[in-house]
């Protein structure tokens, strides 16, 4: 049984990428798309989503490109898990570009996010990290499911999202 495209979102260090990769690895035919990687295709002139009009345009382009990849995989019968930080605007774009997708918003308190971030390479400044975390909490996307992950390890987090994915909406 194939599952709908799954979009994992949440603030920095919530575990989107590690959970998405683990879910993809547990399926017979599944692709993992990290939208941060897609955005990094822009080598010169890249702008972060919070860097004005150009940043927002590149953010939308990253979503559009990720959705194109996802549609190509889906057309070949390959399931898709996407990791991205969604805003209400990009959430709407995913819903338009990937009809039937399932969006799971993972939330995490700032102290736990900072603890998790300390264990890996972070490409954000401390101010950017806090700003993204606070923006996600203040203006969350219209997700199908929300899960609090502070007390979950990666395995528990992955199992919980897998159950939601299997159930669909």
Main attributes?
single chain, Shikimate kinase, 5-stranded parallel sheet, 7 helices, Rossmann fold, 169 residues, P-loop_NTPase, alpha/beta
Please characterize this protein's 3D structure.
InterPro entries: P-loop_NTPase. It comes from Kribbella steppae. This is Shikimate kinase. The protein has 169 residues and is α/β, with parallel strands linked by helices. It has a single domain, classed as Rossmann fold. It has seven helices and five strands. It has a five-stranded parallel beta sheet with strand order 2-3-1-4-5, sandwiched between helices. Helix 3 packs parallel to helix 4.
Number of strands: 5
Distance between the termini: 15 Å
Domain tally: 1
Mean pLDDT, nearest integer? 92
Let me know the largest β-sheet: 5 strands, parallel
The CATH class label is Alpha Beta
Structural class given helices, strands, pairing?
A: alpha/beta
CATH topology: Rossmann fold
**From the alpha-carbon coordinates, what is the Rg to the nearest angstrom?**
15 Å
- Proportion of β residues? 5-15%
SSE order, one letter for each helix or strand: EHEHHEHEHHEH
CATH architecture: 3-Layer(aba) Sandwich
The coarse overall form would be globular
Poorly predicted runs are none
């Amino acid at each position: 049984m194939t599952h709908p495209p799954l979009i994992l979102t949440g603030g920095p260090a919530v575990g989107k990428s590690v959970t998405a990769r683990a879910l993809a690895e547990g399926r017979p035919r599944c692709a993992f798309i990290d939208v941060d990687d897609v955005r990094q295709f822009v080598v010169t002139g890249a702008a972060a989503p919070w860097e004005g009009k150009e940043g927002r345009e590149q953010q939308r382009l990253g979503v559009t490109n990720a959705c194109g990849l996802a549609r190509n995989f889906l057309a070949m019968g390959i399931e898709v898990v996407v990791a991205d930080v969604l805003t209400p605007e990009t959430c709407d774009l995913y819903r338009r570009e990937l009809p039937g997708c399932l969006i799971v918003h993972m939330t995490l308190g700032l102290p736990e996010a900072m603890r998790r971030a300390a264990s890996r390479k972070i490409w954000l400044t401390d101010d950017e990290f806090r700003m993204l975390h606070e923006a996600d909490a203040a203006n969350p996307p219209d997700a199908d499911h929300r899960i609090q992950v502070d007390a979950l390890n990666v395995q528990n987090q992955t199992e919980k999202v897998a159950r939601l994915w299997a159930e669909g909406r």
